[in-house]
Specification:
Layout lengths: L2 H18 L3 H11 L140 H7 L11 H17 L11 H12 L4 H9 L1 H10 L5 H16 L23 E2 L8 E2 L2 E6 L7 H8 L4 E3 L1 H7 L4 H4 L12 E6 L6 E3 L14 H14 L9 E6 L6 H21 L7 E7 L11 H7 L2 E5 L8
Parallel strand pairs: 7-8
Antiparallel strand pairs: 1-6, 2-3, 3-5, 4-5, 6-9, 7-9
Helix pairs in contact: 1-2, 4-6, 5-9, 7-12, 8-12, 12-13
Pfam family, one: OmpA
Keywords: Membrane, Signal
InterPro entries: Bact_OuterMem_StrucFunc, OmpA-like, OmpA-like_sf
């Protein structure tokens, strides 16, 4: 065995104890390696030869240190100037041999010299700059004047002509400027006569329906007065739509006075006042204000010697087919003691009506659930007139003369002699149509007159509207229109009863 072979074997022998612990597979590999004496084509280096210089990146520990310019330099290499943003951990500090560099980036090296940073995200140690954008300015930047409409509260106040986006601290625009910018509201079209009439009918129906149940069980005077106000008050829902409907005729009566001179007006007012007192002399001349009905010499004021059908011993009687059919304003007056309500049997003990008079009433108005409403009146105070007329089938006054008559009548009723006195306003109809329809329409017309009196200054609780329908009509449905029109009249009485609460 040659010298080289013996050296190899010796080296392998020295390794066998450690390799035996690694297992049988490693042992086999070593035996195979020892059995290859002639596998090398080239003789290995002599152990006594000089070490070679290794220029590779993985140099031998004994190799001479080399200059490494990469960022991952060897630990033994010479320290170099690092211009990178993230300097090598082994590079020299600024106070050493390295030359400090100027870093103009937004993330300067902590050891580099401070620079002028003009960006909005300046370093904490950079010089403060003037930032004109107040929305993103550095907290330490100098404040600038902002003239936008969204100015900083500390900015100088500006004049903003746009009131929608004005700065709260700016000077408000003038009223004329606002008027120019304002959009005029749309103008609602004027309602038609049909729409006005429909609105009044709906208001009347709604007023009655709102108290349909409570009117039968009124317990307190305040409840009764609330019902009266709801039907008759000048600012009530029914009165408001009535004024809109009759505004044109009422305005004509107010401004033109229907051609009535002041002397004629004063004469008519005095005549009505004396009539309501019951002190009218038989030969008192009728004022020219009242209508002249033409060839028959029938004037607007019906002669008082025509005694009404249902007037007996100073009391008036009006029949209804049930208690629920009595209008709410009359039930409210009954609750206050101004009128009385009887059954037919109770009413018969007070007076004995003529059979001919009762014959005009339908059977349901004479027995069963029928009711009779009664109130005391001064017979001498009666005013029966055709000077307040209505449009056909409506509660709308027919002309300006009717408005003027209501105005003069209210002035007479407000005389100091009548302080605390109540009046009844009766509506009467001609005989055409059904009895119930005529009674409802005449009641609504009486209430319309009462509201006109209230709008002219009379208290709502001092007027009691009552609808008689055709129960006192003097002419049949087949009579000429001129005769039937006499039955469409208004009767007014002064209520009078000793001890009656007023």
């Amino acid at each position: 065995m040659s010298r080289n072979l013996r050296m190899k074997a010796k080296q392998i022998s020295s390794l066998l104890p450690g390799m035996a612990r690694r297992g049988a597979m490693i042992s086999c590999l070593l035996v195979c390696a020892a059995a290859m004496p002639v596998a090398m084509a080239e003789e290995p280096a002599n152990p006594d030869s000089k070490p070679l210089k290794d220029d590779s990146a993985k140099a031998s520990p004994e190799a001479q240190p080399v200059k490494d310019s990469s960022e991952a330099a060897g630990k033994d290499s010479r320290r170099v100037l690092d211009d990178g943003k993230q300097a090598n951990n082994n590079s020299r500090e600024t106070e050493g041999d390295a030359i400090p560099v100027e870093d103009n980036s937004g993330k300067a090296n902590p050891n580099s010299g401070k620079v002028n940073d003009s960006s909005q995200a300046a370093g904490n140690d950079s010089r403060r700059v003037d930032d004109s954008d107040m929305n993103r300015a550095s907290p330490d930047a100098s404040r600038k004047t902002d003239r936008s409409v969204k100015a900083d509260p500390r900015a100088a106040e500006v004049q903003d002509g746009n009131m929608d986006k004005a700065n709260p601290a700016s000077r408000p625009a003038t009223a004329s400027d606002r008027a120019k910018q304002a959009t005029p509201p749309p103008v609602a079209p004027e309602p038609t006569n049909f729409e006005k009439e429909t609105a009044v009918r709906e208001a009347v129906t709604a007023a009655e329906e709102s108290v349909r149940l409570s009117k039968l069980e009124i317990k307190q005077p305040a409840e009764a007065r609330a019902i009266i106000d709801g039907i008759l008050a000048a600012d009530g829902p029914v009165s408001r739509v009535e004024q809109q409907r009759g505004a044109e005729l009422a305005d004509e009566a107010l401004h033109s006075g229907d051609g009535v001179p002041d002397e004629m007006r004063a004469e008519t007012e005095a005549y009505l006042r004396d009539r309501l007192r019951g002190q009218l002399a038989p030969d008192r001349k009728l004022p020219k204000f009242f209508r002249d009905r033409g060839d028959d010499d029938v004037v607007g004021l019906v002669p008082s010697d025509e005694s009404p059908r249902f007037l007996h011993s100073g009391r008036r009687y009006v029949h209804f087919h049930s208690r629920t059919s009595i209008p709410s304003v009359l039930l409210a007056n009954a609750a206050l003691g101004y009128v009385s309500i009887y059954t037919p049997a109770e009413a018969n003990r007070l007076y004995t009506p003529d059979e001919a008079d009762l014959a005009v009433l339908p059977q349901e108005y004479r027995g069963g659930d029928a009711r009779v409403l009664s109130y005391p009146v001064s017979e001498k105070s009666m005013i029966s007139t055709n000077d307040i007329t209505f449009q056909r089938g409506s509660t709308q006054f027919a002309d300006a003369h009717s408005y003027e008559m209501a105005r003069i009548l209210s002035a007479a009723m407000k005389d100091n002699d009548f302080a605390g006195i109540r009046f009844v306003i009766e509506g009467h109809a001609s005989a055409e149509g059904t009895f119930e329809e005529n009674q409802i329409l005449s009641q609504q017309r009486a209430e319309a007159i009462a509201r006109e009196l209230v709008r002219n200054g009379l208290e709502a609780e001092r007027v009691i509207p009552v609808g008689f329908g055709a129960s006192e009509a003097r002419h049949p449905p087949t009579a000429p229109e001129a005769m039937r029109s006499m039955d469409r009249r208004v009767a007014i009485f002064r209520i009078e009863e000793p001890g009656l609460a007023r």
